[in-house]
Design brief:
The complex is a heterohexamer, with three copies of chain A (about 260 residues) and three copies of chain B (about 240 residues). Chain A is of the alpha+beta class and about 260 residues long. Helices cover about 25% and strands about 35% of the residues of chain A. Chain A has one domain: Ribosomal Protein S5, domain 2 (2-Layer Sandwich), CATH 3.30.230.70. Chain A is built from five helices and twelve strands. The mean pLDDT of chain A is about 95. The longest helix of chain B is centred in the last third of the chain and has 30 residues, at about 210-240. In chain B, helix 1 (about 100-110) crosses helix 2 and helix 2 packs parallel to helix 4 (about 210-240). Mean pLDDT of chain B is about 90; it is low at about 5-15. Chain B is of the alpha+beta class. Classes of the chains: A alpha+beta (about 260), B alpha+beta (about 240).
């Protein structure tokens, strides 16, 4: 549902930015308070609860044994699904994923996949026949802006928290050994850092209030060595080349900072 | 190729104690309720009961956009009960299934009698229940949490609504079935009530009970509800002070 | 679609109940006229047409060979589906089952399943591989109240009317013998009895007029030996303990009475 | 493991008579029509023809809530043709499929010419057809029954609409194909007409017919329609007296 | 969405017809300009672009190996799907196929199937196990009336243009030989001819303007030897017997004429 | 039984030239744009780029019937990106999937900055993009074509929007990835820009790029956009004359 922001809020937030300030007193490159717990759902093989400010997501993983895709017979499968629950915001509705939910799923998936967070080749059990399929489900329960950074941070934490049984082949049968659980093979801790364009400035970790009036959004996924693994621009205003290059540099520092929250 | 799964983590062996988790027949599982856990919702609550983890959120009274649901002389109380995909052993596909549609309906019926809906004509009060982890008895957990969330939202109510199941397991009538007792037991009787008047707002049963066992189970569940109601009150007190 | 009942009808029905009367002259514990035919659809392996008053449901069964569920490898499967056809009432709409249709399906299924009407273990053909799956489809064609009792009565009749071919295993193949048909293995004739709460009274077998103004509904499923196998309360008014216990006793008598309509 | 099904009950052997069921080439199957069989619907009819069992119900004229379908100068006649899951040998999944969507559309087109739609601007007349058992020719059976249901509902009509198929089976042009003749035959030509003027309101064909065979089949079907129309009139007379 | 045609257009088109004329100057039995290209989509195994007047459809085929239907174990499968794209007309909407799209799919499919255009028995690879399934997808991109004739003409052309690899069985495996491609086995070139009823006249190949005011429509599918393989009447006005018989004769000539456009 | 497919027609062998199709690192594939190719749409364009064949059509500004999308002070620009079932090697099921939903959204964001939406309050401009054949880079092809279709529809615009990808393949930063380079390469960076101001209206990336490589790729893509924009202008000139 379209949510009309009163002109007066738009003006006041914009005027603050003009003066180098934000409504909650943060610097332009300052994240809100971040908290991260893992292992909170016992029935999930991996889980995490992440909060960035008042934004809150619960994430769970479910590994299953399945068939690999025909063109990647020796590679496990990661499936990312996001639910923007109607409990999270007054304007979120029940029903099949809308375009915002689809974009959040796909960008989260892209950052994790292209950042090679999970070593999917190690999830092959029998080439061409059986691989682990890891379902990564994001349950957005409280929405106060910047879902992307929270989604990626929480997802990486949940994947790091995930345990699967070891497998062996005996007499042409796959035996799952639940007494010897092993963590998912984690390669990398790629994280995402999002900027909002307000009055020409790009400010980090937008709150809901800032998102509602921003002209554009740029999310940058980065690996531990500072390479870019994913980017996504959103919003109906353009960005200029210099600003983009500048925030890529900032993102390198800030994703390193975010990474300290991982266990 | 056949997949064998060894050493499964579901311990369903033949316990010798009366109940698998050593509880007395009229003993509830560990219970924890917290009010006001979400920022955006008008009211919210988090509840743990045994291995259940449930979140409830309330929005409203607010404008009802679906004209054909509108009631000229009262609010509509709409409920959505939903299980997270990771809340159960085998991943649940997202989206409503027949079970969640039924539970949403009876939850709405269970809560409605306690709310002064007539104060808010033409509007809606929306209750969202998310099961983050399920271990038997989530519909009752959801109703109990939702009632706290309604109070947290400041919705005027005649009384709280509190829910609890009794049932029959291993031949005994027992309170608050765990997941194993529910699956392997002989009967399950989830109820909800308004503790002040003792009136029943939810009543379901499946299994096999004699008339006498039914009365026993009903009274056991009523007793359970009263205990749980104390925790509801504490949760609200903790949130708003005495 | 919400159907607004004029205040005047509500008053007149309620006043009658206050005086111990009903609009159609019945006693509080009296069913409307019941009729039950079976074997009405030749292509269905079992079928029935049930009428309670003007409420009318056509029911058919279709047994198929399928795979058992993983956790019950030696048990057949019963699938219940209900269609509240738009022909049955002016406010029923085409489309996927709504919550009323889902509730009717699930309560009917529960009464039959928990009442152990069909001996599902006898429907296993090859353990873990092949079992009979019985589809029970209810086609509600005329709606004048109390669908639940009609649905269960008609379903039990249709199941009793159902014939399946005998099976044998020959050379590792399942052979279906259509010359030797056998009835479904029926254990029990569990039936359901529904009460409506109007002005504090619980009256049996509500007509549409009574359903439209009732405050609550209580349906009780009972086996032949008078045990309770299913219950379902509906509606936004509460019930008190004593009334519930009282109608359970009444239901025992009335389901026995209903049972005489079965062939 | 392979499943072998022996002794199937579909008798499709090579009969020596001209038609499997011994009918003459221009002979209809047994036909029975009853009007006014449902209580809630404004009009209804039940029809058996051979092994077909079809129910039709009519609601309206009534208010049309879907604004974008509304016609300023006439009523819309909407049709829903549906097969019960148990109406065919292999259970049909509930809900519309492409076949039933097409049949609903052409049924609506077949009935519309006979109804004084222009008397009811901005409203809808809803026709529901339920196939309880199918044995070849359900679309025609549905149209014939629906027309009786429209009359039973008191909807003003120029004429009845009556439907019947002809076709080609075993090299012969024959009337009112049975299920086996439809499946194994060379052509099927279902039509609907208004008997008073002889105008055709439904016309479909599939198979292979020469121009001459087409004309033969068309005339056979027209003749069949006229016979069936007599039964329609009887059904209405039985319901309302002379 | 309902599209209301101004009364004035209706009158002017009808008056022209009364005088034996049409808005674009054509004779009653005259088609608009027809163009047909094939092989326009390299990734499709067969393709065609057909234009009748300003109506334009792009058609592609995709053969896949699949399982035959149980009752026709040695017969390939043809699946026809039509998309009335929202780009083709201002009143076409996104979403699942509506009744017009379904009718177009089914009538096209019927004409091709009953006209025995493809020799489906030759598409069997291993009886009861593997057959070719040919997906025929019609993408309607510009709508100016008479979709049915365009759909069938373009579909036949696309099927004639389709190539599949030859198959052989080696050591119980199916080997697809992409170096020896073969055309789909084409039996017959059944085509369709559509008439619109305006003011009692039946005129061929209606334009959009004519379709919008026509009272009824009759489409006739014909094989090369002039037999009828499919018919479909649409619209809320009746047709009389003599007119039907007359246009069947015309359709025989006109489908022969249409057939000259095939390669 | 296993199906073996021999002699597949996808030539993905180890080429020795720098790029599989012999292009220079900053060379675009063959490009062809034509404006005004459809009759019913208010504006349209057809674009071929390498093996891509894309059609774009525009309707509007027109009345917006979905009230909840309406903007009081400007038009909404809605986009539907869709792939024809036959556009790819393995048939694509009709209807939107998650990929096309995302591309529709970012395409709408990419085009919106260039259109004077504020001139048409409460209305919609609908852009439909159909991929008839896909060979890597269809989202950019779609945006480029859509911009020409918007111009063809006479929608007032600040500037054209033109899109092009750069990326990394075989260790080299290259322009306009082909399908093989996209699938086997190390990174893909599709952008859209308004050539007059150089402002970026679409920016996505996946793969692995250092900061330096990113800047290189970004500048390469900007250069590619400028070249493609010349073809856009020619297409419009061809349609409307100088």
């Amino acid at each position: 549902m379209v949510h009309i922001v009163p002109e007066i809020i738009k003006e006041s937030v914009t005027n603050l930015v003009k003066n180098g300030e934000r409504t909650d007193g943060r610097a332009f490159d300052e994240y809100r308070e971040i908290s991260l717990e893992t292992g909170i759902i016992e029935k999930a093989e991996g889980s995490a609860r992440v909060k960035i400010g008042k934004t809150q997501i619960v994430i769970g993983t479910k590994p299953q044994i399945g068939t690999p895709f025909g063109d990647t017979p020796n590679v496990g499968v990661l499936m990312t699904n996001t639910e923007l629950l109607p409990m999270a915001a007054p304007n979120f509705e029940s029903g099949p994923p809308d375009e915002n939910s689809v974009e959040l799923s796909r960008v989260t998936d892209r950052c994790i996949r292209e950042g090679k967070v999970v070593d999917l080749e190690k999830l092959c059990i029998v080439e061409g026949e059986k691989v682990w399929m890891v379902f990564l489900d994001l349950h957005v329960i409280d929405y106060d802006g910047n879902l992307m950074d929270a989604a990626v941070l929480g997802s990486v934490a949940a994947l790091m928290n995930t345990k699967i049984p070891t497998t062996k082949i005996e007499n042409d049968e796959i035996v799952l050994d639940y007494e010897n659980m092993m963590p998912l093979p984690i390669n990398e801790k790629a994280l995402m850092c999002t900027f909002a364009k307000i009055d020409g400035e790009l400010i980090i970790d937008p709150s809901l209030e800032e998102e509602e009036i921003m002209g554009a959004r740029l999310s940058i996924g980065m690996t531990e060595d500072g390479n870019i693994c994913a980017m996504q621009k959103g919003g109906a205003q353009p960005l200029d080349r210099e600003k983009i290059l500048k925030v890529v540099s900032i993102a390198k520092m800030k994703t390193a900072e975010l990474r300290t929250h991982l266990p | 190729m056949i997949i064998i799964i060894t050493n499964t983590n579901l311990n369903t062996g033949t316990e010798t104690s009366a109940r698998a988790d050593k509880r007395a027949f009229d003993e509830l599982r560990n219970l924890k309720i917290e009010a006001g856990v979400l920022e955006r919702a008008d009211g919210s609550a988090y509840l743990e009961m045994g291995g259940n983890k449930v979140l409830a959120a309330v929005y409203g009274p607010r404008e009802l956009f679906v004209r054909r649901l509108m009631q000229p002389n009262r609010a509509v109380l709409r409920c959505k009960y939903n299980m997270a995909p990771f809340s159960v052993d085998d991943r649940k596909r997202p989206g409503p299934d027949r079970r969640s549609v039924e539970i949403s309906k009876i939850t709405s019926d269970a809560l409605s009698p306690a709310v002064f809906l007539e104060k808010f004509p033409r509007s809606t009060i929306d209750v969202y229940i998310e099961v983050l982890e399920a271990e038997g008895g989530t519909r009752c957990a959801g109703i109990t949490a939702a009632s706290v969330a309604l109070a947290d939202a400041g919705i005027p109510m005649r009384d709280m609504v509190v829910a609890c199941a009794a049932g029959k397991s291993d031949g005994n009538v027992v309170l608050d079935l765990s997941e194993v007792e529910d699956k392997e037991g002989e009967a399950d009787l989830p109820i909800a009530m308004m503790p002040r008047t003792g009136e029943i707002t939810l009543l379901q049963m499946d299994g096999d009970l004699t008339e006498e066992e039914f009365q026993q189970a009903l009274d056991l569940a009523i007793g359970g509800c009263k205990k749980i109601n104390e925790e509801q009150k504490k949760a609200i007190k903790n949130r708003y002070g005495e």
